[in-house]
């Protein structure tokens, strides 16, 4: 069975364009792939394990074969749960707004806990090599202004970062769905949203 992992990093606001388009994509995808398993995480509602002093100590003790404290064991277990779920998935859908040219902090924190050497990638004499094969990803991102296809495109550091991170893991099949100008052109908000839903439906057919 194909597993689809949906990661939403969006605050709980009414009439979110990105969430609406993402939910529509999932609806169309489910219609086309009724037997696939779809797992969804709301990073604004769920607690992502941090990378902090306790985490670093736990990893060090684990590498050296030293006993872990109860707190360290809990941290390692939480990290492994999120990581293993990511490794077991076949397809990924990332959903977020652009925040100050980047991803929301919650999405960045998620990437941090799945970017694990010897799990999602490994170091070699020629540089890092991805360990994931035959997986694909979709990134749905909204922005108040229009960036892609304009001179401002270079300022979308978040979209570029996510694509590079997944490429590091070996996920080369990457699709972008940018929904832009929803604040700059508020009178065209519904039109922009409708166009994005049409694009989402087309992507669902091939995803």
TrEMBL record:
Which InterPro entries has this protein been placed in?
Flavodoxin_fold (IPR003680), Flavoprotein-like_sf (IPR029039), FMN-dep_NADH:Q_OxRdtase_AzoR1 (IPR050104), NADH:quinone_OxRdtase_FMN_depd (IPR023048)
What gene does this protein come from? azoR2
Q: How does it assemble?
A: Homodimer.
Protein name, as recorded: FMN dependent NADH:quinone oxidoreductase
Q: What class of enzyme is it?
A: oxidoreductase
As to how many cofactors bind and how, the note says:
Binds 1 FMN per subunit.
Q: Which HAMAP family match?
A: Azoreductase_type1 (MF_01216)
Query: Where does the Flavodoxin-like fold domain start and stop, copy by copy?
Result: 2-202
| Species per Swiss-Prot/TrEMBL record | Ligilactobacillus aviarius
Which controlled-vocabulary keywords does the entry list? Answer: Flavoprotein, FMN, NAD, Oxidoreductase
Query: Which residues constitute the signal peptide according to the record?
Result: none
| Sequence positions that bind FMN | 16-18, 98-101
Q: Name one Pfam family in it.
A: Flavodoxin_2
Q: Which cofactor does it need?
A: FMN
Biological role stated in the UniProt entry: Also exhibits azoreductase activity. Catalyzes the reductive cleavage of the azo bond in aromatic azo compounds to the corresponding amines. Quinone reductase that provides resistance to thiol-specific stress caused by electrophilic quinones.
Protein family according to the UniProt entry: Belongs to the azoreductase type 1 family.
GO molecular function per UniProt: electron transfer activity; FMN binding; oxidoreductase activity, acting on NAD(P)H as acceptor; oxidoreductase activity, acting on NAD(P)H, quinone or similar compound as acceptor
E.C. number: 1.6.5.-, 1.7.1.17
Which reactions is this enzyme annotated as catalysing?
Answer: N,N-dimethyl-1,4-phenylenediamine + anthranilate + 2 NAD(+) = 2-(4-dimethylaminophenyl)diazenylbenzoate + 2 NADH + 2 H(+); 2 a quinone + NADH + H(+) = 2 a 1,4-benzosemiquinone + NAD(+)
